[in-house]
Amino acid sequence: MTAIARLREALYRSWDALRPPEVAHAHCDIPCGIYDPHEAQIAALTVLRMDQLIAEAPALAADAKPEDRAAYVAKLARYTAVKEQHAERVKHEVRVIWGDYVTPDHAKQHPQLAELVVKILKQSSKARQSTAIADAQDLLKLVQEFAEIFWQTKGAKTRRQPSLQKSGGELVVPVAA
Known about the structure:
The chain is mainly alpha-helical. The protein has one domain (about 35-175): Four Helix Bundle (Hemerythrin (Met), subunit A) (Up-down Bundle), CATH 1.20.120.400. The chain has 6 helices and 2 strands, in the order H-H-H-H-H-H-E-E. The protein has helices spanning about 5-20, 40-55, 65-100, 105-110, 115-130, 135-155, and strands at about 155-160, 170-175. The longest helix has about 35 residues, at about 65-100.
């Protein structure tokens, strides 16, 4: 480091000691303005798929070997852990879009949006707590509705297309004009 660079660094440190910098508040380190409900939809599809796998798991025989019992329990634990992570991801993605992207004008244009966000958060918890496929399907429907409204706020039309995932279901995607 050159003498000039050392002097500049000392001056900056002195200035910061006398007048500490203010904390900057932004939704991320590099406010990019890029938002998309796609990840929330994929997470909802994952919740649905985990419930399907739990429902498809064959019942364990009463006389199952300990190693078979352990493998069965481990498989269900993995399905449950993934389901819970993705239910939480739905909540995270929706909260970020709601908190960082949605403006008062958006809320005025779509008065059902606030209630829809609350429904998604509650349904994510319900789907997380149960293994009922219907709960996961309801979550997916709510997230799809959210995605349609999101794209409307950007002036885009949407279409539903098959997800092509093992869980089935559809994804709401924007359509280029």
